[in-house]
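PROTEIN DATA CARD
Card holder: DUF1214 domain-containing protein
Chain length: 411
Origin: Novosphingobium soli
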Amino acid sequence: MAYGDAPEDPALRAAWDAFCDRLRSAGAQAFKEASPANPLQRADAFRFLTQNLGQAFELALETKDPAFPQIHAFTTPTMKLGGDVADFTYRQAWIDGAHAYRISGRKGTARWLNVTVQGPRPETIPGTDWPSLHEPFGDIPECNILGSQIEAAPDGTFELFVGGEPRARNWLPTTPGSRKLFIREAFDGWDETPTTLTIERIGMDAPRPLPTPDRMIEAMAWAGDFVAGLMRDWPEHSWATSRGVCDPQARNAFPADKTANDAADARRGRMAAHMVWRLAPDEALIVEMDMHPGFWIFGMGGAFVGSMDFLYRPVSYTPARTAVDPDGVVRLVLSHDDPGLHNWLDTQGFSDGNLTYRNLLTQDPATFRTRLVPRAALMDHLPAGTATVTPEQRTAMRLERYRAVKRRYGL
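Structure generated from the sequence above:
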C-alpha cells in the first residue's frame, strides 16, 4: 500500500504540508525584533516554539473532544506559554454547554485555587478592534469558583459539577457558548501540595471514537494556527492590549496604572502589573515594594513572556519565601550573577526579559520603585540589614525549590 491507495490521502497530505509550512513560518518569528539578538535568547526563542510544538496536538486533537474531556497541563517546568508565572500551575479541559461534567479531586494545601468556565472566543477583544489572543486563549470568563468555596470531605476529597441541572453546592453553570475549563493553582510556601483533579462527562457510556481523516485534517489546521499564533502574538500582544503592561521602550519600570483590573480580571481572581527589563552585564536592577497583606507573586519571564527556569533557579518570590527589610520594604534584585542577597532574581544570563506581579487575594494596587545601578556598587544602594545568604545557603534554597516544584507537578 502506498500514497494514493486511500481516497483521503491527497487531503491528508495537503493538510500536513500546510501544517509544516505554518511551522516553518513560525520558526522565522524567532528572529523578530522583540527576540533579543544574542545566542542564549535566540536559542530560547526556538525552545519556546519546540516546547509548544510538543503539546500542539494534545490541545488540537488528543484532549479536544468535549464529550470525552481530559485535564491537560499546558505549562510545566519544560513547557511555557501564555505569560505563565512561576508558582502557578495552569490546566485546562475542553468542555461545552451541551454536556454535564463531574470533577473529582482531593484538595491540596496550595494557598489559592480558581476554576473558571470560559465562554466563546470573540474575533476581537471586546470593546476594541484588537484581535483576540491566539488559541487556546482569548475566550471570556463566564463564572468561577475558588478553592475556598469548594466543600470537601474531612479527607479533602470532593466532587465539583459543571453544567447540567443547578446544584446547591460545588456547581458551576455553563451556557451554550461555554467551551473550556481554566484551572489555576498558586503556591506560596515550599511545603504546599497540589490539588489532584480528574474530569468525566456524566453519562459517558461508550469509548471515544477514533479520529477520522476529517478530524485529523481539522486538528492539523488548529495546530498550525496554534504554533503560528504563539510565535506571532508573544510578547507584542500583551504590550498592545493589556492594562498594567508598560510601553516596552520604557524599560526597567512598572507602568503608572498598576491595577490591570476589569470585570474579567475579577472573575479570574487576580490583579496584575508587568515590567519589561533590560540589563547590561555590569548592571543590576533593584525593585522595591512596600510590604502589604495578601498573596502576591513576582515571577521572571523571557522575551516571549514564558516563565524562566523556575525548577532550578530563583526566578520567583512570594510572601512566605521573601525576606522583608527592617524598614518594611520588599527589595528584589535582578542581576546576572549571584550577589549573595536573599531576594535575588536570576536573569539566567538573558539581557532582556519581563517581571510580572500578581496579587491574588485583593485587588488593591501596589506601588513599585525601581533603580538601575552599577552591579559593582549594588550594596551601596541597599540599606543596612538587607538579608544576605552564603553559597551554602543558596544551594539549600535551590534544592528546596527543586523538590517543591517537582512535587507540584508529580515529577
